[in-house]
């Protein structure tokens, strides 16, 4: 179509087909702006596609994100499109009980290499792989329709070792399908009522305001959410509820269903198959349901008229995306709430330091719940000094106190959770004679020993090798394993308490077929005595019969390089403690540590957020960390380390001289290798800036990144990344 013919027909948000590059094929694109004239030679638009159209608000948000997160606008737009977008829709999907699902079993980077190097020649095979690199875990039937291929192609790829096809139970509507009793509003206590009234005012009078409900676990935050949503529905508007991916459990969703009925509720998270996600997306788009519960990306749900956004467990790091686009869902939620003149409600028992700081300077209104709503008492927390245990001659993983407590709990037929933040068997392998530690050949990081299969594994890139018995450096066979992981812990527990049943939950036991949800259900329903696990056991679960929680080593996170190490330690210990004694039986928590004097550990024992906050905020102020400024990390990665060094220095000089010439209040640190300076054979260097990220800084960085004349190096700009590795 020629430009003149498009006048009056085309509008912002339209999906169009355009011939791109030198390729003959057509590419899909979206209209993000209309102009009368262009200074560039432009391609013709071949056609406007029916069906999918983005709203003006979508485009506006995508533009804002591209700028704010230094990424491509098309990557942002993708987040707003229906899952698995294609002109062919999937309405004839099978409804049988089990179906075949496809998973990639090769590294994405290796696949990309094979495609680039023409190892894979068939267009259809390429299409399938390209699709899977973006949407894993899809039914074969859906995949065939979406990529216009046949089962023969899939079989070939399976034979070549790119994919595996697994038969799995299909639950079309994963959380729904069972009888749930209707629940009625509870009578709010005074603190809950105050919080409710404040937020409800903003709902009724249509103005933006940000709130933090700060209340211990069980203080009745969810009950407030439910009653607020009721108000929103009365106004015929919708509500988005964000929760951390891992706490999006059936138990959690059931509470919403029991109040509002399953018809009103859509669920969005990455474990749904693409067909299921598409169904949910469509229900929202058609306004068939008005309550959207989901992980981070549910903030992009195509809601018709938004009335409220809730972010539960707002301190959770999963709200920040660590892949492109590196957005922060909390930031975007605020932007969207402002646009819609509606309240944004954050909830936590251990608020993010940055959030709490803003309640102090009144940018966010603080609403506090000080007691548990169902009158159960908070668990008693004890700290055990492991140095003292050693001095007393106890070399076991368990202190005397924890050992006795487990024994007693077993006697009383109560359940126990043991938490250890390291998976695998032992955390590193070292030669006693020369001190050599075994490192991954792709990453500069120590390998972890896994007893299953007698292997060493790299937790960064997944590389595995056979265990070593002879030192590669000095040929000594005095090889020793250091540190304890969950695997070893489970083995020790089985030795110490042979009568007890145990179940383990970590990345190695949680698989696509054996979900973390399944493990937790088994723990609960089969009344298994002891659950052993990493972080995954910490969040949001409710086990009435758990009366003891043991933290095996509360030291691992404290000495990491990250400025949030104290905060993370406090949060995780407080949360893990919250798993004990949630009903009539009172709970006990035992924290083992080599650093009983660390203030984060002390505060978690007292379960005193205020003291923790006051101490930590002073440190942040002195060291100039968030909330006093933002940390902007510019990471340069690639295979050619010399090239990276040169480009890093060039970029550094550009930014530094601009700062100097304009007398800007920005701290810049010279380029240095990242703490983990090699991952997957790619070297990593970084430049760190400390300042408030405002328009001026965004412009400065964007301009500096232009024309660096280095096509080999990838540059990733990330503001306040969740992990500074
Ligand atoms: P949170 O979300 O802060 O963890 P919940 O809303 O889940 O807290 O409440 C914890 C428990 O207390 C739940 O069993 C809930 O039904 C109960 N509860 C909440 N509010 C009240 C209330 N006002 N009166 C009685 N029980 C309540
Ligand atoms: Zn050696
Ligand atoms: Zn590795």
Structure in a nutshell:
The protein contains 22 helices and 28 strands.
Task: Describe, in plain words, how this protein is organized in 3D.
The protein contains 22 helices and 28 strands. The protein has 725 residues and is α/β, with parallel strands linked by helices. It has 6 domains: 75 residues, GIY-YIG endonuclease, CATH 3.40.1440; 74 residues, Arc Repressor Mutant, subunit A; 174 residues, P-loop containing nucleotide triphosphate hydrolases (Rossmann fold), CATH 3.40.50; 181 residues, 3-Layer(aba) Sandwich (Rossmann fold), CATH 3.40.50.300; 55 residues, no CATH class; 90 residues, Ribosomal protein S10 (Alpha-Beta Plaits, 2-Layer Sandwich), CATH 3.30.70.600. Helix 4 runs antiparallel to helix 5 and helix 21 packs across helix 22. Bound molecules: adenosine-5'-diphosphate (ADP) and zinc ion (2 copies). The site of adenosine-5'-diphosphate has 15 residues, from helix 9.
Principal-axis shape equals globular
Total of domains: 6
What integer value in Å does the Rg equal? 27 Å
Highest CATH level, the class of the largest domain? Alpha Beta
CATH fold group of the largest domain? Rossmann fold
Q: Which strands sit side by side, in order, in the main sheet?
A: 9-10-8-11-12-7-13
Which architecture of the largest domain would the CATH scheme give at its second level?
A: 3-Layer(aba) Sandwich
Helix fraction by DSSP (H/I, runs of at least 4): 25-40%
Instruction: Specify the biggest β-sheet.
Output: 7 strands, parallel
Chemical compounds bound to the protein: adenosine-5'-diphosphate, zinc ion
